[in-house]
Amino acid sequence: MARTFPAIPFERYVDDIVVHCVSERQARYVLTEIVKRMNQVGLALHPEKTRIVYCQDDNRRGPYEHTEFVFLSYGFRRRSARAKDGKIFLSFLPAISKQALKKISAEVRSWRLHHRTHLTEADLADWINPIVRGWMNYYGAFYRSALYPLLERINAYLLRWVRRKYKRLRGKKKARTAWNKAVRKRSGAFAHWAWVTHAPTVW
Fold first, then answer.
1. 143: which residues sit within 8 A by CB, 6+ positions away?
2. By the 8 A CB rule, do 88 and 82 touch?
3. C-alpha dihedral, 59 to 62 to 64 to 70, nearest 10°
4. For 85-115, how does the pLDDT look when each residue is reduced to its tens digit (9 = 90+)?
5. Residue 115 contacts by C-beta under 8 Å, 6 or more apart in sequence?
6. What is the pTM of this model?
7. Separation in Å, CA 7 to CA 31, 52, 196
8. Which sign does the torsion angle of CA 182, 184, 186, 187 carry?
């Protein structure tokens, strides 16, 4: 790329590469040349993962076979965005990919937080905060609202934990009151409370 296409930007991480072209014609030409180069060194591009993607947004509305891709566990596709003047428009943006979100959700379920009644609130925080904070730091760099449903699910498990651990808080109303009080007094107790604090409505 540096020798043959110095003006075309690209990103690479290990064997995953994204090349930015200005037109489909250019993309097809660059892809042909990359295939030739791979053949020269005894390598081949993955037949299913290698594709030309049309980055749809408000300025590019045409139809195309592929309009999204995944890179470094981020899903790149057309998403709603807000301009500085408050207007909503469509842009081509990254957010946590469906695959990554599914994997993380499965991990959260495997914690079975609501059954860990032998642990204290501090124990739970010490356990999950480093993990959740890592997800927030990485996947929250772009379009962090895509993480909110996952963080709200963690809250749902925590609220179930509260109701199981403390008999006096078995009732939904009492549990919700105690939850709101805890959030106000210990807003930094759980890492994800920096973004999502409210008690879930379904639990």
1. 79, 93, 94, 95, 96
2. yes
3. 20
4. 999 999 999 999 999 999 999 999 999 999 9
5. 164
6. 0.89
7. 15, 19, 43
8. positive
What gap in Å lies between CA 12 and CA 31, rounded to an integer?
15
The tens digit of pLDDT for each residue in 144-161 reads: 999 999 999 999 999 999
Q: Would you give the DSSP letter of residue 199?
A: P
**Which residues are within 8 A (CB) of 70 and not within 5 positions of it... i.e. 6 or more apart?**
76, 97, 99
Cα of 152 vs its chain's centroid, Å: 14
Sequence-separated (6 or more) residues with CB below 8 Å from residue 5? 30, 33
Please tell me what DSSP assigns to residue 59: S
Q: How far apart are CA 77 and CA 56, in angstroms?
A: 7
Amino acid at 27: A
